[in-house]
Amino acid sequence: MSDKADIKVVIVDDSDFSRSIIRRMLIEEGIEIVGEANGAEAALQVIKSKKPNIVITDIVMPEVSGIELTERITKSYEDISVIVVSSLSQEHIVLEAIGAGASDFIAKPIQKQQLIDSLEKIITQD
Fold first, then answer.
1. Distance CA 10, CA 20 (A)
2. Which residue among 6, 9, 81, 98 sits deepest, i.e. has the most Cβ atoms within 10 Å of its Cβ?
3. Which fold is adopted by the domain 4-125?
């Protein structure tokens, strides 16, 4: 990936384990993680202060879903792309995530190459 230095990621998942898996994959690729959050409200605070260009979020979280978080991010920050990851990968859920403004949808368990390919695709579109 040629533009790794330009990628600043926030990881949002209520599962510490899931966040750690994504964190490890990104660190192995030299991608900067500027913040993490275990829910939507915390994520919005991190996003506001850390100014990432990509947010990776789960769908199923307490309080606010990743779909609603995606809508909030894409309405408020046109320069931030969202990748939705979820074990819920039925077609209507994927379409709902994309409809909310997600740039990509990745089914769990996440495959590292699929995540890296998604990040590369987003960065080269900018």
1. 12
2. 81
3. Rossmann fold (3.40.50)
